[in-house]
Specification:
Blueprint (H helix, E strand, L loop, with lengths): L3 H6 L9 E4 L10 E4 L5 E5 L2 E2 L14
Antiparallel strand pairs: 1-2, 2-3, 3-4
The structure holds zinc ion (ZN).
The site of zinc ion has 8 residues, from loops.
Length: 64
């Protein structure tokens, strides 16, 4: 798991808001994601390492 203290210092590289650890969706890849509280980008976690890169993030779920 990702260290709580590490989570506390992580911020979204796009909007500088804190991120929140989310469990993976059913059927998704087995990794959790870090979801930005501001812009909603979803950052992957690989081998318990948060990948805080805008290029690696999934865009926010905004459709319609
Ligand atoms: Zn953000």
């Amino acid at each position: 798991m990702i260290d709580k203290e590490l989570l506390d210092i992580l911020v979204c590289p796009s909007c500088k808001k804190p991120v929140e650890l989310k469990d993976p969706d059913p059927g998704d890849t087995a990794q959790a994601r870090l979801v930005c509280a501001g812009c909603g980008r979803r950052y992957p976690v690989k081998d318990d390492i948060p990948i805080m890169l805008i290029d690696e993030a999934d865009p926010p779920k905004e459709q319609g």
